[in-house]
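User: structure tokens for this one?
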Amino acid sequence: MLKIHHIRNATMVIETQNDVILIDPMLGKKGTIQSFTYLKFKPKRNPIVDLPKHSFNILNKVTHCLITHRHPDHLDKAGIKFLISKNIPITCSYKDASVLKKLKLNVVQELKYLKKSPFLSGSIEGIPARHGYDLMAKMMGNVMGFFIKLPHQKSIYISADTIYTPEVDCVLKNLLPEISVLACGTAQMDLLKPILMTKEDIIKFVKNAPKKVIANHMEALNHCPLTRKKLFSELKKNQLSGKVIIPEDGETLLF
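Assistant:
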């Protein structure tokens, strides 16, 4: 059996019989990160919600960690402290490895884009991600998604913070992930274009995904206006609500 624990925002845990894999640990208390917008949306310190109760019952079982990029809503000070205290092995992009090592994190694997590598008892491939439309992508820096195949488990595509790109399209149509995880908050900074998919591109992603989609990156940060309720309404309007799981913080999904 495969368990996916949605913790908060993009922080999640993939649990199999042999491995417990943490993704993007933002583990700090409510309000421990500065506001991401001051004009477009009401200023609030982030995260705007606390960790779910009993999160560390799951987190304390973690055997490995994947980091998509180094923004504080994916790797905060509390997340770094947790990873160091447990000496958890980390897989990340080769572009982030040197900085993470300087932070005293236990980086054991550096991935290159579009190259399949061994991972635990299966495989992993680093997938290009573009964190924003037009100029915003360059400003937001490097991000890597992951396509994971573990023995006797459904394949998982963690798209990470990205807009819809030819590389995303290729994963959905050629690699055919059985579970796709999509950042759906439609995040925006005060200036320029969004830094995550628009509602239109979210619908496009879901339509092109071969099987189930898990929607995350919502209702935890002040620059993400799309709520679970609004997303469900949009999916229902497009007759796609049955294809998407929108978990609550702290919810466990069984596959």
